[in-house]
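Hi support team,

I submitted a single chain yesterday and got back a structure, but I'm not sure I'm reading the token output correctly. Could someone confirm the output below corresponds to the sequence I sent? I've pasted both exactly as they appear in my results page.

Thanks,
R.
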Amino acid sequence: MDFNWYLDPITNHYVDFEGVVGRKPFWMFALFNFLIALGLSIVLNIIHLSPLSGLYSLAVLLPSLGLGVRRMHDIGMSGWWLLVGLVPVLGWIYLIYLYCQPSKTPYGA
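Hi R., thanks for writing in. Yes, this is the structure output for that exact sequence:
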């Protein structure tokens, strides 16, 4: 696995809400982000510093939102569709469905 899938949105596109991102870069970032958050949470729980795991979540909030908005642009939708995720359960399911859609722009990967 190439760790650049994770580093690129953080280092080069920290607050980038314009443009598009394909399915693979989006899901690879999501996978690495999940694994890092899980590992960090376990380690910090063991050493009784679990509140610090929130700092990691806060640090990757803007890149995650930017990636989500750019993914919406890639399928031809407005970034405002991320707000559907605020609806419990059904909103999350629909948002995952949208994230899985194929690219509708010639720039999607």
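A quick pointer for reading it: The mean pLDDT is 92. Let us know if anything else looks off.

Best,
Support desk
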